[in-house]
Amino acid sequence: MEFIELLKAVILGLVEGLTEFAPVSSTGHMILVDDMWLRSVEFLGQYPANTFKICIQLGSILAVVVVFWRRFFDLLGMGHLLKGGSGVDRSQGHLKLTHVIVGLLPAGVLGVLFEDYIDEHLFTTETVLVGLLAGAVLMIAADLFRPKEPKVVTVDQITYRQALAVGFIQCLSLWPGFSRSGSTISGGVLLGMNHRTASDFTFIMAVPIMAGASLLSLVKNWEYFTMDALPFFIVGFISAFVFALLSIRFFLKLINRIKLIPFAIYRIVLVFLIYFLYVN
User: Fold this and answer.
1) Which of 21, 30, 48, 129 has the most CB atoms around it within 10 Å of its CB?
2) In this structure, how many other beta carbons lie within 10 angstroms of the beta carbon of residue 157?
């Protein structure tokens, strides 16, 4: 494999890692960057190229596990194994694995039912632009109409009803470009969470749903993982992990201060820039 192909994998991993946990759509950015510049499809072919864009999300998933490892220990009922306990005050209630499952059900069911249609028809520059713009509108609405005083300031205060409502809003992210984090953070904010809490819940939910989508794609398209293509996937995975690890910590420190509107403005500017330069 030529060096330039591995460099493309690094760049796509960088785009995935830096944008996966900001509400700007990592999938949308990968499609835009790849379709208009890198052209990995010329090396991998259309379908495995789309599979690559999904599978390198495993690198981002691993970064979430690293950042929230104590929380995942507690969700799996192993918090007592940690030195000093899990740090969760169970007398006041706490986030359970069932909260996460309830939040995942709506998008999980729809994702399985429409996965083939989404892969075949929605991974295009034009559809991504629509998703970016629609998601920006939702994010602006979330900041404008959110409760003035958030009642939910930690994930341990999230109710099952709120988890399910966020799950239904997450279904919007099945449209590439809409952004999973953009939809779920917006939904959480509208339901009375502060921005950091909505972000934490979004990232925690991301692990099973992104892992499920990536592993399903691996199983269905195993024949595309040839020895020639394998270095491309491995380099992209490592790149996504490293840059996601950096971006998660930065984003969580930033989101409660700047809220969602700056990200929405970025998305709108990006839509018009791409449209006039490459589509119109």
Assistant:
1) 30
2) 17
Q: What separation in angstroms does the CA of 13 have from each of 87, 110, 233? A: 34, 27, 9
User: At which residue do the structure tokens 């969602």 appear?
Assistant: 260
Q: How far is CA 224 from CA 48, 219, 256, in A?
A: 6, 10, 42
Q: Which two tokens stand for residue 278?
A: 């490459």
Separation between Cα atoms, residue 151 and residue 169, nearest integer Å: 19
Show me where the domains of the chain are located. Answer: 3-279
Task: Report the DSSP beta bridge partners of residue 152.
Answer: 193
- Contact (CB, 8 A) for 241 and 60: yes
d(Cα 92, Cα 99) in Å, to the nearest integer? 15
Those residues with Cβ within 8 angstroms of residue 11's Cβ, 6 or more apart along the chain or in another chain: 33, 38, 239
Q: In this predicted structure, what is the pLDDT of residue 36?
A: 63
- Residue-wise pLDDT for 131-168, tens only, equals 999 999 999 999 999 999 999 999 999 999 999 999 99
CA distances from 48 to 16, 55, 60, 221, 263 (A): 17, 10, 19, 7, 30
